Amino acid sequence: MCFADDPQASTAESKSMVTPGTEKAKPTYISLVKFTDKGIQNAKQTTQRLSAWAAKVQSMGVTIKQMYWTLGEYDQVCIFEAPDDETAASVLLAADMLGNIRTQTMRAFTAAEMDKILAKIP
User: Fold this and answer.
1) Nearest-CA neighbor of 9 among 51, 47, 71?
2) pLDDT in tens, 24-46
3) Of 19, 25, 108, 122, which is least surrounded by CB within 10 A?
């Protein structure tokens, strides 16, 4: 992770038995990623690690939407979806425990989600 990116591998959508038009959008998360000393020593394998990670977490309902390798304070920015906060937290902890990265993650909201939030303001 993030985790393990190959943009082609991460865009595979899982098949759903939900009636079209009734799917519930999964929450979106944005992770700012820094390589650890171990991660930078193995930087040549970063894209392979992401591909492997994306495949592994897909079974948990997590989809890596996009991964960017960046210049500056952070080495990567990962955009992913997960079924819920608990699942997102568990895959982030598991990724961090491998020792290649440290993450700082934010929950992101679409305009439609933000409209729902704003509608609830008293």
Assistant:
1) 51
2) 789 999 999 999 999 999 999 99
3) 122
